[in-house]
Structure formats: C-alpha cells, structure tokens
Amino acid sequence: MSDHKRFGEIIPTMDGSLTLRHPDHKQDYHSSEGAKFEANALYVDASGFKQALDTQENVVVLDVGMGLGYNACASIAAWLQSSGKATLELVSIEIEPFLVESVATAKAPWQEKWDQDWLAGPLALKEIEDNFYQALLKHPKTEIEAKWNVWIVDGASQLWSEGARKFQFVWQDPFTAELNPSMWSKEWFDRLNGLASPGAVLMTYSVARVVRDALMLGGWAVERIPTPGRKKHWLKATKGYS
Ligand SMILES: C[S@@+](CC[C@H](N)C(=O)[O-])C[C@H]1O[C@@H](n2cnc3c(N)ncnc32)[C@H](O)[C@@H]1O
C-alpha cells in the first residue's frame, strides 16, 4: 500500500519537518509553523521540562495523543542531550494502533529527516503485550535510565495502568476541542489532575475559551504564554499545591 493511502496526505511544515493530514476530518497533526518547532519550543522548552532534566533526579511525563511521536521523541532527544542527572519516565497514550506501529519502525515517512537522538526512542520500542510498547534507554554520559511506555488506548474512556506514578509534566495534544471534545472536558482535566503531582505543568497549543474553562474547572491554574513564533499564545496550566 502506498504511504499516501496508508497514512493520508504527508504535509511539509514551515520548519521542514513533515506531518500528516487526517484522511477523514482533514485536520493536520501539527501546526503549519513546524511540527518539530512546536515539539521543542512549546513542550520541551516553555514547560520547564528541559531545565528539570538538569535539576531533578526523576522526571515523569504524560504524553497525551502520541500521534506521530514528535513530542515524545523531542522529550527523549532533550533527555539524551541533558547532563544525564535525571531518570526519565515518559508515558504516551494513543488511540490509533497504526500510528504506534509506524513510529516503532523508525522508518515512517515523517521520520525521514529525524536525527539519531530523535530516532533513539522509536528504535528501542518493543511490543511487550497487546496494546503496550516499551523502550528502555541508557544515557550516553551517565548510563542513567529512561523508560518510555506507550499504551494503545482510548484515553477518554479507558484506564491504563501506570500504578501510583504521578506526572510532573503533561503534553496535552489531542485534535481540537471541536473534533475531540471528550479529551478537553472538565472530566478529562479532573482525571489528569488526579494523575499529576502538586505543581505539575500541563502544556497545550490551544488557548480556546472552552479549553481554559474546562482546565480551571478541573483544578488547573491557567496562563497564556507568548510564543517565539507566529501564533501569539500557547497555554500553560499548573496544578495547585492545595
Ligand atoms: C494532534 S495529534 C498529536 C500529535 C502528537 N502529539 C505528536 O507529537 O506527533 C492528536 C492525536 O491524538 C490521538 N487521539 C485522539 N483521541 C484520542 C483518545 N481518546 N485517546 C488517545 N489518543 C487519542 C489521535 O489519534 C492523534 O494521533
């Protein structure tokens, strides 16, 4: 089967990285400004994640809607390039099995231009059981470990098993609230709140009023932050300490 038939249209974004256009609802998986740019600037940098890798001993991240793996692989690449002080636990959830299978080949069409640090996670991903993949990595400087768990699951209606682990960072990146309302509801943000540690940071590209309202009702303090790109704002939400 051709790539076009299997994945839908492959679209170049402004920084040269490649994304997909969803074949049914036609929404792109990433901003036209740059799939790689957004993964690095919004999720890895503006969240404080990169800094946490050099100041904390353990960093735990939930990646909502793994999609083409940009946010997950940008996180792993940042960890590989960090001082090697912190262990990383990254948990991704994704509803579409074919995306997880494709990312794990490290040869999906959008991965063509990815460098070794970006491909390290996909190359290490193994199917452990039905609907569960895992990658174990060692840091090149300190041999400290990173674990990437990938669950094929409908996050809105199914539970996935990550024990008592509390997330310090959440990459909230489903399709828009109009297309995928259950992943932007008060109930969803309530649930994320329960899974997050005090002071946890949730980042998202959407600054829509419905999203801000649902986050606040779910117990998150919301802040619009300026972007370094053409879009004016992204959203940073913080879980309160009380
Ligand atoms: C905008 S794309 C995410 C792009 C991705 N974060 C990346 O870095 O490449 C949204 C993703 O959310 C996934 N998704 C939608 N509904 C979901 C659900 N209920 N549970 C888990 N994943 C879901 C979609 O299949 C899609 O891959």
The distinct bound ligands, ions and cofactors come out as: S-adenosylmethionine
What is the string of SSEs from the N terminus onward?
Answer: HEEHHEHEHHEEEEHEHEE
Cross-sheet strand order for the largest sheet? 5-6-7-4-3-8-9-11-10
Estimate the global geometry from the Cα principal axes.
globular
Q: How many domain units? A: 1
The unreliable regions are none
CATH architecture: 3-Layer(aba) Sandwich
Rg on CA atoms, Å = 17 Å
Distance between the termini: 53 Å
Beta content comes to: 25-35%
Q: What is the strand tally?
A: 11
Folded structure, characterized:
This protein has about 240 residues and is of the alpha/beta class. The chain has a single domain (about 35-240), classed as 3-Layer(aba) Sandwich (Rossmann fold). The chain is about 30% helix and about 30% strand. The chain is built from 8 helices and 11 strands. The strands form 2 sheets. It has a 9-stranded mixed sheet with strand order 5-6-7-4-3-8-9-11-10, with helices on both faces. Helix 2 crosses helix 4 (about 70-80), helix 4 crosses helix 6 and helix 7 (about 185-195) packs across helix 8 (about 210-215). The chain starts with a helix and ends with a strand. The model has no long low-confidence stretch (mean pLDDT about 95). The site of S-adenosylmethionine has 22 residues, from helix 4 and strand 4.
